Amino acid sequence: MARIINFSDAATIGIHGLIVLAKSDRPLNAIELSEKIGYSKHHIGKVLQRLVKVGFLNSFRGPTGGFQLRKEPKDIRIYDIYVAIEGEVVSAECPVDLPICPMGKCIRNELISELSREFVNYLQSRTLQEYL
């Protein structure tokens, strides 16, 4: 089945992982997160290390270590998590790079641009706090 908008596994891990961490009163390690969100501990570790680098999380080593939010959930927009993992959302240009559309009006470009704007606006309007 085709999907118009699809989140990568990495984006899904990042968003769901931060929600689980926001609900926790202590740091959680990749194994614990794996049990809660259903992805491999290795993939979770890679994604969350990226989120540590951009400042969303702290990480702690050792037997009681793990990951913990660095910011308040109300201060973390879902879009910012998405961008930290996937990069900025950009509208796709003409797939065949035609300077002038032979059809006169390109439904694809208008549709993709509109959906991209709506997607970005939606994610920018949501914070982690709303999912707790």
Could you characterize what this model shows?
The chain has a single domain, classed as Arc Repressor Mutant, subunit A (Orthogonal Bundle). The protein is mainly alpha-helical. 18% of the residues are buried. It has a two-stranded antiparallel ribbon with strand order 1-2. The model has no long low-confidence stretch (mean pLDDT 88). Helix content is 48%, strand content 6%. Helix 1 (9-23) packs across helix 3 (41-53) and helix 4 packs across helix 5. The two termini are 31 Å apart. The protein is built from five helices and two strands; from the N terminus they run H-H-H-E-E-H-H. It has helices spanning 9-23, 30-37, 41-53, 78-86, 107-124, and strands at residues 57-60, 66-69.
User: What is the rounded distance between the termini?
Assistant: 31 Å
Report helical residue fraction: 40-55%
CATH architecture term: Orthogonal Bundle
Structural class estimated from helices and strands: mainly alpha
Identify the quaternary structure here: single chain
Order of helices and strands: HHHEEHH
For the CA atoms, what is the radius of gyration?
18 Å
Low-confidence stretches: none
Under CATH, the topology can be stated as: Arc Repressor Mutant, subunit A
- Please tell me the total number of domains: 1
Q: Please report the first level of CATH classification, the CATH class.
A: Mainly Alpha
**CATH evolutionary superfamily:** Winged helix-like DNA-binding domain superfamily/Winged helix DNA-binding domain
Averaged pLDDT:
88
Strand residue percentage: 5-15%
Shape: elongated
Query: Main sheet?
Result: 2 strands, antiparallel
Strand order of the largest sheet: 1-2
Extended strand count: 2
- Count helical runs: 5
